[in-house]
Amino acid sequence: MSIYVRSMQVEDIDILAEEFGIKQGWHDKTTELFTMYFDEHISSKRYVSVALVGDSIAGYATLLPNDEIGAFANRSIPVVCDFNVLKKFQRQGVGSALMDEIEKTAKQMSNEICLAVGLYKDYGTAQRMYVKRGYVPDGSGVWHNGRNLQPYEACVNDDDLVLWMSKTL
Q: Which residue stretches of the chain have pLDDT < 70?
């Protein structure tokens, strides 16, 4: 299986929305979202890498040069902001290929990279991959909706409940 990673192209917008939003059922992955990603990619506000297996899009990852929320806010540390591999291509090296490219891009901006990973079971593969790649928790604890939670504070175990991690490049 041949994996190729390249920059996002305008033709990817509808394919990404179809594959992730409709076929995979992730309703927040819309044409509007990917149009915004592409526009930000063109203006260098966000870097978007797309992985292909053969001629098929298998996944994508986005990198912001500086995050405005979270544990690394306004520290000029690039942040992996949205990273997904289609279920049918998971555990085949696609995620690693995307992260290789994202880390290479981040290295041009900083000697550090960060990300937030979800805490429920569906994020288990990502959690393990990040640790294997050398990411470590930043020590700030659990965050929800861009805010650091206090001890015993109630929260919902959803996509916005995250642990921040970083890696020296």
A: none
Q: Are 84 and 20 in contact (CB under 8 A)?
A: yes
The residue written with tokens 């990673």 in the block is 5
What per-residue confidence (pLDDT) applies to 101?
A: 97
pTM: 0.93
Closest alpha carbon to 117 in 91, 80, 149: 80
**Which DSSP string corresponds to 112-154?**
EEEEEEE-SGGGHHHHHHHHHTT-EEEEEEEEETTEEPPTT--
Q: Which superfamily does 3-168 belong to? A: Gcn5-related N-acetyltransferase (GNAT) (3.40.630.30)
The upper half-sphere exposure of residue 69, i.e. CA atoms within 13 Å in the direction of its Cβ, equals 10
The domain segmentation of the chain, as residue ranges, is 3-168
Q: Report the mean per-residue pLDDT for the chain.
A: 96
